[in-house]
Every structure is written in structure tokens, then in C-alpha cells.
Specification:
Layout (H helix, E strand, L loop, with lengths): L6 E2 L23 E2 L2 E14 L2 E15 L5 E2 L6 H29 L4 E2 L5 H38 L5 H12 L4
Antiparallel strand pairs: 1-4, 2-5, 3-4, 4-6
Helix pairs in contact: 1-2, 1-3
Protein name: Secreted protein
Length: 178
């Protein structure tokens, strides 16, 4: 785990029961909850066109992250099957990552964006801020999509209880680890 208390998805790491550190929600129907999000880094560069600076975004790298302090499994329901199902949520997010990366590249790569500021230094600073906000807005849309996909995963497998459906997902997720 890194200093931000997240676990980055890795083909060599499987979630453990000890990774679920939040207290369970007694009001929740579900026996578990995983908080999974995408973090990102990018490069922003700029070019001057007369008095104006245009910026462009390059090298967008996404990381699928699990948040232990916001994730829980009801202690009375701690089973290997439920843990495997929760790993599936993490794997599902990783499975979507190439699609999201392609979308971000389509939206941002090879495009130049105007920025504001009274001088080139201010324009460069605003370019850094604006590029981060632009990427964040796109990631937010994809996290909503991930939420919907995760709900569908839960519905199809009945939270891992329909073993043959869960096995189909598990087989799909195994391809991530090859």
C-alpha cells in the first residue's frame, strides 16, 4: 500500500480480507463494499503563439486503485467467495482501463487548448490547472460508467452467489493476469 492508503491494481496482487478496513454499514443490504477509483498522471506542455499560450495534454496514465479505508466486508460474511467477488470489482475496473485510456487519448491527444492569464507564466499555470480539471471531468464520467457496470456485475452474479455466472466473470478476469 502506498502513502495515500490505496492499493494499485496489479496482476500479482489479490485483495485480502485485511485490506477491507472500514467498519461495515449495518444499514446496507450488501455484505460488502469496495471503493475503487482511477487515479491519473499526465504531462501538460505549451507552445506560444504570439502573446497567447496554447497547451496540450500528453502521456495520460491511469491507475486503478482500491481504497481500504473506505471498503468493508461484514465480519459475519467473511468468506473466500465474497472476497473473490470483491476482487472481481477491482478486476472489472482494471478491465475497463484500456477503453477509458483510448477515450482520453481521443479527447485530448493532438489537440491544443487555449488558456487564460495576463502573461506567459500565468497562462502556463492556468494550463496545468485546466488540464487537470478537464481530465478529472472525463474520469468522473467513466467512474459513473464503472458504477453502472459494477451494479450489473452484482445483479448478474447476485453478489457472487450464482456460482456459474460468477465463474464466467472470473474466467474473463483471469485474462488480466496473463
Amino acid at each position: 500500500m502506498n502513502q495515500n492508503n490505496t492499493i494499485a491494481w496489479s496482476k500479482d496482487y489479490f485483495l485480502q480480507l485485511s485490506d477491507f478496513k472500514a467498519d461495515s454499514n449495518p444499514a446496507a443490504f450488501e455484505d460488502s463494499h469496495s471503493t475503487i477509483k482511477y487515479s491519473y498522471i499526465w504531462t501538460v506542455n505549451s507552445e506560444g503563439f504570439g502573446d497567447e499560450i496554447k497547451f496540450f495534454i500528453e502521456n495520460i496514465v491511469l491507475t486503478t486503485e482500491f481504497y481500504p479505508m473506505l471498503s468493508w466486508i461484514r465480519q459475519s460474511q467473511e468468506t473466500i467467495l465474497l472476497l473473490k467477488h470483491e476482487q472481481g470489482h477491482f478486476d472489472l475496473a482494471e478491465l475497463l482501463k484500456p477503453k477509458i485510456t483510448r477515450h482520453l487519448e481521443d479527447v485530448f491527444l493532438w489537440k491544443k487548448f487555449s488558456t487564460r492569464g495576463q502573461n506567459q507564466e500565468q497562462q502556463k499555470q492556468h494550463a496545468r490547472e485546466s488540464s487537470g480539471l478537464m481530465i478529472a471531468n472525463e474520469i468522473e464520467k467513466w467512474e459513473k460508467y464503472l458504477f453502472d457496470e459494477r451494479q450489473e456485475y452484482d445483479a448478474q452474479t447476485n453478489y457472487g452467489q450464482i456460482l456459474e455466472k460468477q465463474q464466467k466473470f472470473d474466467d474473463m478476469f483471469k485474462k488480466l493476469r496473463m
